[in-house]
Amino acid sequence: MVRKKKEDEKQDGKESEETRDPLLVAIGERIRALRTSLGWTQRTLGERCGMAATGIYLIEKGAQNSSITMLKRVASALGVSLATVLPEGDREVELSFRLSENLANRSAELLETLRSRRKTVDSSFDDIEKQVLIYLELMKELEPGN
To answer: Dihedral of the CA atoms 130, 135, 140, 142 (nearest 10)?
Structure first.
């Protein structure tokens, strides 16, 4: 019975390896390579990004589908960008998100600049209008018969 249980566990492990998402496996391999290049243990990386060593192990194994936020924390702890831990093909997606975010931020800045300048221009027009009205009043007073 014990032997049967161990054989089932081994077979379950093989099945889970075969069914892992290739993207998660590739991300895990990149993270492991970066971590080991720094000479860090899984525990060290975990401490630096607020995770348990087992969480790092599962990510590196490709057995845990981590959130983008968590992957960004891991990448940051490793001193690299999120794009660095993504496989080549998926970097384009991350870069397009970053570009989109940059465009949105720049658009917001430009809109704020436009609104600010509009207030300045509106204020200038108000001043000019007041001066023209004063000029017209003066012109009326200078007309013969007044």
So the answer is: 150
Among 102, 22, 33, CA closest to 74: 33
Q: Which amino acid is at 142?
A: L
List the one residue out of 61, 88, 54, 59 whose CA is nearest residue 71. 59
Longest dimension (CA), the chain: 122
Q: Among residues 24, 22, 19, which one has the least CA distance to residue 67?
A: 24
- pLDDT tens, position by position, 98-130: 667 777 777 778 888 888 888 777 778 888 888
What does the alpha-carbon distance between residue 73 and residue 53 come to, in Å, rounded to a whole number? 14
> Helices 42-49 and 68-78 meet at what angle, rounded to 10?
110
| Tens of pLDDT, residues 50-106 | 999 999 999 999 998 888 889 999 999 999 988 888 877 655 666 666 667 777 777
- The Cβ of residue 49 has, within 10 Å, a number of other Cβ atoms equal to 18
- Tell me the C-alpha distance between 108 and 143, whole Å: 52
Residues listed for the chain: 146
Give the predicted TM-score (pTM) of the model.
0.52
